[in-house]
């Protein structure tokens, strides 16, 4: 079974903006997603967006060549479904990256009287490496 990460769209892949607008690409997210996929990690885009706003997000990802990194969009992986024997409503992952999750390492920058939140992907990579060791130790 592959290590699986649920990745939020707004605030992780794209900077937060007034919904349903989509902000700029989070700095270094493209490098981070490529790093994950190169490690064999299954990435699930986990977003509350649906219908037109989901289509907007998918078009935004495609235009930046980021959609290719995600194995699933708002659905569980086949591996997790087989493992549990059913498909639950909640996305099942080994790690969750989203603005609503406690512990996502961020830094703040001020620009034009506005505060921007940036994900510290360098620190997230360290957490992933630690979590993978535990995961593969348990699932050998």
Notes on the structure:
The protein is an alpha/beta fold and 140 residues long. Helices cover 35% and strands 18% of the residues. It has a single domain (4-139), classed as Rossmann fold (3-Layer(aba) Sandwich). The strands form two sheets. It has a four-stranded parallel β-sheet, with helices on one face. The protein has a two-stranded antiparallel sheet with strand order 5-6. Helix 2 links the parallel strand 2 and strand 3 (72-73). The relative contact order is 0.21. The mean pLDDT is 87.
Spatial extent as radius of gyration: 15 Å
Annotated CATH homologous superfamily: HAD superfamily/HAD-like
User: In CATH, what is the class?
Assistant: Alpha Beta
Task: Determine the fraction of residues in helical runs and give it as a percent range.
Answer: 25-40%
Mean pLDDT: 87
């Amino acid at each position: 079974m592959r290590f699986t990460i649920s990745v939020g769209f707004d605030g992780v892949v794209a900077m937060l903006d007034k919904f349903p607008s989509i902000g700029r690409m989070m700095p270094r997210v493209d490098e981070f997603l490529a790093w994950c996929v190169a490690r064999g990690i299954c990435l699930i885009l986990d977003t509350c967006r649906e219908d037109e706003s989901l289509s907007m997000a998918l078009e935004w990802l495609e235009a930046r060549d980021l959609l290719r990194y995600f194995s699933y969009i708002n659905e569980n992986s086949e591996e997790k479904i087989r493992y549990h024997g059913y498909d639950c409503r909640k996305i099942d992952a080994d790690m969750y990256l989203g603005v609503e999750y406690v512990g996502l390492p961020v830094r703040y920058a001020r620009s034009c009287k506005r505060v921007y939140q940036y994900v510290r992907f360098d620190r997230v990579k360290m957490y992933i490496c630690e979590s993978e060791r535990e995961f593969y130790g348990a699932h050998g």
